[in-house]
Amino acid sequence: MAATAGFAGGWAARGVSDQPSADVAVPTAAVASASPALGTKGCPKPRAITSIKSNERVVALTFDDGPSAEVTGQILRTLADKKVKATFFMTGEHASAHPDLVAQIAAAGHAIGSHSWNHPRLDKLSPAQVTDQVERATNAVSAAAGTRVCLARPPFGLTTPQVDALSAAMGLTTVGWTQNPKDWLNPTPEQLRHDSAPWSDRPATILLLHEHGAEDPQQVGPSATAAALPGIIDDYLAQGYRFVQVTGEPFGSGRPSL
Fold first, then answer.
1. Is 100 one of the annotated active-site residues of the chain?
2. pTM of the model as a whole
3. Annotated catalytic, 210?
4. C-alpha count within 13 angstroms, C-beta hemisphere, residue 199
5. In the chain, what are the domain boundaries?
6. b/e map of 185-204 (b: 16 or more CB within 10 Å)?
7. In tens digits, what is the pLDDT along the chain, a chain of 258 residues?
8. What is the largest CA-CA distance in the chain?
9. CA separation for the pair 98, 118 (Å, rounded)
10. Residue-wise pLDDT tens digits, 219-256
11. Which residue in 64, 65, 164, 195 is the catalytic one?
């Protein structure tokens, strides 16, 4: 099965082997200037979600890098057929190119987050550049969805104290993952289904999937994800798992599960 990686240490990276620096000084002025992005007012208190600490069999399906004209529609149809809700982390660039798909995702009741403007390594950027990437993306996704966005996921899962602080200043909760089947390497649907299967030693997981199959996150194209998704969902259902969104149980404020 795919290996896990921890938040801020960093998460399992898409083709990135080096890790972000452990401690980065965050300029007070930079945080103060990171005003809440469009639609984030009224969001829950920002925090960093890194796992689901629960003994229940729950799984959060998350999809990065979309929306995609080739893949998103098929993913949405599968989720509707299976009556499963998921969480989508979309880049501002792709959201601006396909606002109709963002609106469809929101209308279907899925949770929505931003994923930077065009997928750079935020841990390598200046505070102003980080703010620009996150704020522009959140504005674009919010505008297309017609709803506030309270979640963000750093590209490649690479973050630093600076990135976390700037995101929090914009009212955004950052979200990691615990299981990465590496669908961005374009495996066969059968291999992806195998690598996405529930782990016997971990009853709860945040599963990382993508709407773009190519290693280059800017390349739009079909992936194994859409083809494998029905089987992935069936495998979790067969083992008694309940599907959750990152914004719902067991992430709610009423349950100290993180």
1. no
2. 0.83
3. yes
4. 17
5. 47-243
6. bbbebebbbbbbbbeeeebb
7. 333 333 333 343 333 322 333 333 334 444 444 555 555 667 888 888 888 878 889 999 999 999 999 899 999 999 999 999 999 999 999 999 999 999 999 999 999 999 999 999 999 999 999 999 999 999 999 999 999 999 999 999 999 999 999 999 999 999 999 999 999 888 889 999 999 999 887 889 999 999 875 545 454 455 789 999 999 999 999 999 999 998 755 554 333 333
8. 51
9. 14
10. 445 578 999 999 999 999 999 999 999 875 555 433 33
11. 64
> What's the pLDDT tens digit per position in 95-122?
999 999 999 999 999 999 999 999 999 9
Reported residue count of the chain is 258
Residue 224 contacts residue 192 (beta carbons within 8 Å): yes
> One of 110, 115, 119, 210 is an active-site residue; which one?
210
Report the distance separating Cα 174 and Cα 47, nearest Å: 6
Can you name the residues that pair with 64 across neighbouring β-strands?
A: 89, 210
Torsion angles phi and psi, residue 79, rounded to 5: -60, -40
Q: Angle at which helices 99-107 and 72-82 pack, to 10 degrees?
A: 10
Write the burial class of residue 108 (CB in 10 Å: 0-12 exposed, 13-18 middle, 19+ buried).
middle
Fold observed for domain 47-243: TIM Barrel (3.20.20)
